[in-house]
Write a structure and sequence with these properties.
6 helices; single chain; 5-stranded antiparallel beta sheet; 11 strands; binds zinc ion
C-alpha cells in the first residue's frame, strides 16, 4: 500500500506534467473504482486547466480552473504512469509491483502539453472525486483528518495535546488518522524505533498531566518528520524510467531499520539485540526490545524544568 512519502513522491512526479496544462481529453474506462466516479466526471474535467497539485494526508488534490478540485487516492495498489516524449515513468514506485498491465488502466488524462497521465489500479481501492474548492475541507474525504505529519504543525506540543490522557498504545494512537493523518504501519514502526519508544507504551505517557510535552514527545515528533522527509527524498531519486516487465524492488525498502526485520540484529551500533515482531490490532509492529524498552519516559529523560 502506498504510504505518505510515496504519495508525496507521486505528487512531485505528476506536478511538472500536470500543473499549467489543460486537460484536453479524459478516458474513463469503468464506472467505479472503490466508489463510483462522480456524475459527469469526464465533462467536468475536459477543457479545465490544472492550476495546482497539492496533497493532504494521502489524498492528491488537483485544483482546476473551474473551481473544483479533483480528489485522488491511490488506495492499495493505485499508481500513475506519466508518458511524455515517448517515455513512460512511474513516480513513487518504491516497492515490487505486479507489473503494469494495461487492463488495469482505468483513467487516462490527455494534457495540452502532450503528456498522458494514466491511472492504473489492479485492486481498485483507489478513488477519484470532484469537490468544489470551498467545500474541500468539510468534504467527507478530508473533514476528519488530523494534522499533517510532514508539515511544521507536528511538534512535541501537538503530540502532547493529542495524546494527553490516552491509554491507547502509542502505535494505535499514531495510526489514528483523526489525530495525525497519513501515517502508516511502516513509518510508525520506524519512527518509534528511532525515538526509542515502545509501541505498547500508553500514548498518554508522552504528555504530563497538564498536557505539556515530555522530552519523548519532542523526540517522537522529530523522528516522524525525519523518517518521512528522508523517505520523500529517497523517493525523489527513484523517479526512474519504467519498463513494462519491471518487478524489481525499489531500493527504499532496504533502508528500513526495523520494519520487516524480525529475527535480524538491531541496526543500532553496539545494541546486539534481535528485532521482534508483535501484533497490535491485527497489524505487525517491529521493534527492538533493547532500544525501545517499556520504561516510563520520565525515568529515561532529564526533566526540563
Ligand atoms: Zn536495539
Amino acid at each position: 500500500m502506498p504510504e505518505l512519502p510515496e504519495v508525496e513522491t507521486v505528487r512531485r512526479g505528476l506536478e511538472p506534467a500536470m500543473v499549467g496544462a489543460r486537460i484536453d481529453k479524459v478516458e474513463q474506462r469503468r464506472p467505479d473504482l472503490r466508489f463510483r466516479f462522480p456524475k459527469r466526471f469526464v465533462a467536468r474535467l475536459t477543457g479545465q486547466e490544472v492550476v495546482g497539485l497539492g496533497r493532504r494526508a494521502k489524498y492528491l488534490l488537483a485544483d482546476l480552473s473551474s473551481g473544483e478540485v479533483l480528489v485522488m487516492h491511490l488506495g492499495m495498489s493505485g499508481r500513475f504512469l506519466v508518458t511524455q516524449g515517448g517515455r513512460t515513468r512511474v513516480p513513487g514506485e518504491f516497492h515490487a509491483e505486479a507489473g503494469g498491465e494495461s487492463a488495469h488502466d482505468h483513467v487516462v488524462f490527455h494534457l495540452s502539453n502532450g503528456a498522458r497521465v494514466t491511472y492504473n489500479d489492479a485492486r481498485r481501492f483507489g478513488l477519484m472525486d470532484l469537490v468544489p474548492r470551498a467545500e474541500l475541507d468539510t468534504s467527507p474525504h478530508l473533514c476528519d483528518l488530523g494534522l499533517e505529519p510532514l508539515g511544521n504543525e507536528l511538534s512535541g506540543e501537538a503530540i502532547a495535546r493529542l495524546f494527553r490522557g490516552k491509554r491507547a498504545p502509542l502505535k494505535a494512537a499514531l495510526l489514528d488518522q483523526r489525530l495525525i493523518a497519513g501515517l502508516g504501519n511502516i513509518y510508525v514502526s520506524e519512527a518509534l524505533f528511532r525515538a526509542g519508544l515502545h509501541p505498547e507504551a500508553a500514548a498518554g505517557s508522552l504528555a504530563t498531566a497538564a498536557g505539556k510535552p515530555r522530552e519523548s514527545a519532542r523526540r517522537l515528533a522529530e523522528e516522524i518528520r525525519a523518517v518521512l522527509s528522508e523517505a520523500v527524498e529517497a523517493g525523489g531519486s527513484t523517479l526512474r524510467d519504467y519498463a513494462k516487465t519491471d518487478g524489481s524492488l525499489g531500493y527504499f525498502q532496504h533502508s528500513f531499520r526495523v520494519y520487516d526485520r524480525e529475527g535480524e540484529r538491531c541496526a543500532t551500533e553496539g545494541c546486539g539485540a534481535t528485532v521482534r515482531r508483535l501484533v497490535q490490532s491485527g497489524r505487525s509492529t517491529f521493534y527492538c526490545p533493547r532500544c525501545q524498552r517499556r520504561r516510563s519516559p520520565v525515568a529515561r529523560t532529564v526533566p526540563l524544568g
